[in-house]
Amino acid sequence: GAVVSQHPSRVICKSGTSVKIECRSLDFQATTMFWYRQFPKQSLMLMATSNEGSKATYEQGVEKDKFLINHASLTLSTLTVTSAHPEDSSFYICSARAQGNEQFFGPGTRLTVL
Amino acid sequence: AQSVTQPDIHITVSEGASLELRCNYSYGATPYLFWYVQSPGQGLQLLLKYFSGDTLVQGIKGFEAEFKRSQSSFNLRKPSVHWSDAAEYFCAVALGGSYIPTFGRGTSLIVHP
Q: In Å, how far is B59's CA from the nearest CA of chain A?
């Protein structure tokens, strides 16, 4: 089956620093990748959609300068949380889609900003 | 705008008992419908999906779901729950064409021995 990995699985950083999260499709080429944010005991909220080689499309209310998304290849997308603050602490999940309709989800990254 | 409602925040069942998790959607046309499961600290795994055709959909791990157009519902069922089924379950809907799901808030399943 299609596998999506995320790295790191957990990260703790100081307020004001930037954190990069990687999302990789391991056994397929992902034309589209998605980034979600999940608060404790809540649902997933779509942050942005990215297509390889083009700028990401951000959902309303998501700061594009805060959450930088790069989708440089068909197997890798990165999310950089810039100048992180405690309110950015959350569970970030990526998903990837090939030419079909199904999204395959990564295991998530737990970000804690002190 | 499309929306999906999971009215139950928590459901507690005994191991071996049957299970039904409720999901209702609000959308003018029939959307694509999904059920996902999330174990603690993990990503999401697709249990089953409905795009068209037979309204009773079979999924993995013994789960099934039935699409009822008249009730705008897509409830998830399992005849006999195992302790390993304890997890968070998300219903999701997607517009045709985009296939980008909008998720419900989730239902936490607790299984008693």
A: 14
